Amino acid sequence: MTANYFNPVQSVYGPGALLRLPELLAGRRAALVTFPEARAIGLLDRLQAVLGNSLACVIDQVRPNPDVAELAATWEGFWRDHADVEVIVAVGGGSAIDTAKALMVGNASNRFDELVAGLAGQAAFAPTRFKTLIAVPTTAGTGSEVTPWATIWDRERQKKYSLHLPQTWPAYAVIDPELMLSLPAAVTLQSGLDALSHALESIWNINANPVSDTFAVAAVRDTLDVLPRLLREPGNIELRGRMALAALKAGMAFSNTKTALAHSISYEMTLRYGLPHGIACSFPLPLVLKRAIGRRADRDAVLVQALGHPLADAPARLAAFIESLGVKTRFADYGVSDEEAEQMVLHAQGGARGKNFIGTAEESLA
Description:
There is one protein chain. This protein is α/β, with parallel strands linked by helices. The chain folds into 2 domains: 10-178, Rossmann fold (3-Layer(aba) Sandwich); 185-356, Dehydroquinate synthase-like - alpha domain (Dehydroquinate synthase-like, alpha domain, Up-down Bundle). The chain has 15 helices and 10 strands. A 6-stranded parallel β-sheet has the order 1-10-7-4-2-3, with helices on both faces. A two-stranded antiparallel sheet has the order 5-6. Helix 8 (210-232) packs parallel to helix 13. The two termini are 35 Å apart.
């Protein structure tokens, strides 16, 4: 059996990596995409100083879980006013990087609704103009800095779209744990659990391969070890660095496999209940793990590497770990009835990500 692994992103890792940006830009003009709070915490000033004369414009009103209604004016204004900018530098969590990926692709008409129609499968979207992306995560969990996917939401229609083109791979991922020192505890927790979910989801996955397994196992083991300690010592740069590296490994794993059933469930929980992504994709992990065990001997062997023996006890141990961090692991804890949970899981199994799971579509978790 042969396997393929592909990831074209050049990763720059370590404290102070942010200072490499001028070198990576190599004289090209850049647009900065970041989150609103970057100004108040002094990050925007720092970025402007690092980018210097290369900085052409700043887009700093990125909201969590970017929505098509919010993106439309930003996208059209960017391509109208800054079409000559060559590089987008995205600094922030997954929402900032996802927004930047949407901004990367343009068309001749400069109409955002054509992009949305393409994402919805209503019409072919043929982008004709592209930007280069440098992704600089400020959280340890998204993995978006080493994947080509961007999640775009349409809350009015209660839909989630996935943007994925050959051109939406970042050119560079700049992982600087110093940028994560000021993260609030809630964001540290949510992003860390997102990384854990990415790693586990790439193991119980029909697209798994030996290289993705290597990254995934290391990411799971590192996250289980580091995340509780980091929550106790948020100012510890060594722990921040280790968690950032674990998240990077998880991103490298699911960059080839995509996510699976737990993420498919999470989209419904975010749309219907407003649950933060890191919580929405991690609370069902023990349930999905229980269902994954015994499906395939090769996947069981990798899960043992990640979670240890005995594998039969792993769902309970994983649930205890997540709950020890203050996150509940049952649907009922989030106000979801048994009947609604059953329907939600059945719907998730039929989704694009749910179909990546090694289990059968006929069975339910509820």
